[in-house]
Structures are given as C-alpha cells and as structure tokens.
Design goal:
Blueprint: H1 2-17, H2 22-27, E1 51-61, E2 65-71, E3 78-85, E4 91-97, E5 104-108, E6 112-119, E7 124-131, E8 138-147
Antiparallel strand pairs: 1-8, 2-7, 3-6, 3-8, 4-5, 4-7
C-alpha cells in the first residue's frame, strides 16, 4: 500500500513538472505589466521643447554674416531669430524664406537687440544675411530657435 501511494505521488509530481505547452503560455496574460528596470544610460532624456536652429554665434569684422537653417514642421511652427548689434552703427538683415521668395528686410539699430518672428506651417529653408551698408566693422551675436 505504501508503495502504491509513493508511485501515485511520483506520477502526480511528474505531471506537475512537465513542461507547459507553448500555447498555454501564450494565453497567460499578467494582470499588470511588470515594471521594467532601466539602466541610467538607457533612461530617456527629457528634451528641450525648443529646437536650436542657430547656436549662439558671435560675428565680428567687415564681412557680412551669412547663415541658414531649416525649420522642420515636427518641431513646431514658430521660430525666433535674435540679433544683438554690439556696434555703434546700424546693420541690415535680409531674410530669405525658401529659394523663390523675395527677401524680408529689416534694420538692427546700433547697440540694440532685435527679435524677428517666423511662422512656417511646413518644412522651410531660411537664409540670413546681415551686412553693413557703409562697410564699418560689425560686432553682432545671433541665435535662432524653433518652438511650438
């Protein structure tokens, strides 16, 4: 009798230890997703909502400043171009939006800062040309950023 109980227990145990069918494993869905342990190097970085189009740039000399950037619609529709004129003479800026447009012209007064706002609803190429009409030494800082 004791031998029969041992064999029955052994068979029951062997049934429990049998590998599960993969179809049964696929039907099992945990009630809650298991938390993922993330390595610090894998952790997502929070990005700045603003996209820098022109990094802070300092320009000196008699030659004109030229720069260009592309506004990508996924980064937002608004952009600011900030120009600081550190010289004692006015400067002039031509802004070309896409290749086929007429330039937008503006004056940057001496020792002042000017912000030019742009709105673009699609990917847009922009060229910036800042110059002196009389050829004086220029001293300016420029940066541009795009935001939502």
């Amino acid at each position: 009798m004791w031998f029969k109980k041992m064999i029955s227990a052994g068979m029951a145990l062997s049934v429990l230890l049998l590998p599960t069918n993969t179809l049964d494993a696929e039907r099992f869905v945990p009630a809650e997703p298991l938390p993922k342990i993330v390595n610090a190097a894998e952790a997502p970085m929070k990005s700045d909502p603003n996209a820098l189009l022109i990094l802070q740039t300092h320009h000196e000399g008699r030659s004109a400043y030229t720069g260009s950037f592309t506004m990508v619609a996924d980064n937002g529709t608004l952009a600011d171009i900030i120009i600081e004129n550190h010289s004692d003479h006015p400067m002039y800026m031509n802004l070309y939006v896409d290749d086929y447009s007429e330039p937008m012209e503006t004056t940057i007064s001496k020792n002042s800062e000017k912000t030019v706002n742009l709105l673009a609803l699609q990917d847009t190429d922009v060229k910036v040309y800042i110059y002196s009409r009389i050829g004086h030494d220029m001293d300016l800082s420029i940066r541009a950023e795009q935001f939502r």
